[in-house]
Design the sequence.
């Protein structure tokens, strides 16, 4: 069975996740959607609730399912899959996982990307993050969670644009673009961007590391925000599996939780294979083999979104990518030859 796409919806408290989600649930074309939330009451489902299918699953008017997270997200997703197989719940074609406003998205992303109970039946399609045009600046200054949510986004939805001035919206766009230049930016009034935010997003991760993101072989991180930055690199040659394994481990060890999210398109030297890689904080997940390049530029490239990290720290790890095929992938940063160029 083809894996079911999952969209992760997050955003700070009061940023408009509920409005966006409810607009999606009412929209044609989004039937057969399963929504997973922490509490039913958080998305105001009373007006669309028809009947309870099981203890923690309800059926909505649009033909969608909604369920609460039982013991853990991976168990809830696995349970939904097997209920669908057994015909105990109506079939669903996609899943939206809505977090609380204070959620750290990293553990959720690692569950969606790396837990076998999830990856056997689902695939992460996109991370959608809402940002309040009126208050995002203050939230970023005062709340670590808001910055982390924005940093991992594939799509950023600027909400409450009907109540904000063009200057406020422009300032929000500038701030968000500086923190996460790879994310798609949308503006929303009362949930008007729901169709665009939740549309099928297959390939969005690849588009987010296209060449227009990059202005040189490497460039200093955008410094608009003092703590969350994007670091972008283009590699002129393919890399070996050994080099990719070594670099993934070294950069994760070097930055730890400061590596909020990393995405890259990399050509493998031994086989000519093209793979998409993803890392979240200390964890890199199994590379995804791709059918071909997303554009005419056939150079490997990486985007690392970090908190409290300098570009130079990441640049020092890049020589690991130059390891020859068959080399020991367990070398440490200190083992890399001084001055060796990244390939």
Sequence:
């Amino acid at each position: 069975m083809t894996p079911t796409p999952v969209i992760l919806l997050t955003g700070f408290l009061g940023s408009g996740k509920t409005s966006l989600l409810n607009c999606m649930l009412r929209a044609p074309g989004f039937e057969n959607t399963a929504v997973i939330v922490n509490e039913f009451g958080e998305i105001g489902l009373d007006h669309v609730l028809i009947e309870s299918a099981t203890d923690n699953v309800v059926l909505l008017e649009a033909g969608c399912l909604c369920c609460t997270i039982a013991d853990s997200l991976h168990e809830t997703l696995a349970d939904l899959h097997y209920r669908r197989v057994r015909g105990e719940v109506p079939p669903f074609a996609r899943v939206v996982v809505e977090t609380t406003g204070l959620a750290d998205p990293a553990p959720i992303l690692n569950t969606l990307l790396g837990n076998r109970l999830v990856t056997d039946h689902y695939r992460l399609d996109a991370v959608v993050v809402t940002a309040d045009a009126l208050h995002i600046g203050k939230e970023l200054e005062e709340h670590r969670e808001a910055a982390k949510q924005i940093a991992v986004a594939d799509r950023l939805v600027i909400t409450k644009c009907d109540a904000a001035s063009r200057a406020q919206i422009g300032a929000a766009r500038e701030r968000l673009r500086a923190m996460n230049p790879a994310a798609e930016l949308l503006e929303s009034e009362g949930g008007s961007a729901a169709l665009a935010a939740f549309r099928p997003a297959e390939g969005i991760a690849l588009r987010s590391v296209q060449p227009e993101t990059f202005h040189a072989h490497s460039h200093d991180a955008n410094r608009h925000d003092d703590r969350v930055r994007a670091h972008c690199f283009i590699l002129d040659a393919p890399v070996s599996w050994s080099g990719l394994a070594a670099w993934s481990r070294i950069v994760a060890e070097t930055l730890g939780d400061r590596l909020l999210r990393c995405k890259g398109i990399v050509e493998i030297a031994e086989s000519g294979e093209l793979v998409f890689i993803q890392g979240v904080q200390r964890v890199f997940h199994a590379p995804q083999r791709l059918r071909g390049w997303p554009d005419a530029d056939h150079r490997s490239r990486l985007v690392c979104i970090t908190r409290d990290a300098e570009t130079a720290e990441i640049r020092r790890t890049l020589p690991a990518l130059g390891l020859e095929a068959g080399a020991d992938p367990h070398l440490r940063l200190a083992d890399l030859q001084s001055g060796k160029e990244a390939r």
Observations:
- The first strand starts at residue 4 and ends at 11.
- The mean pLDDT is 84.
- The chain has two domains: 4-202, 207-335.
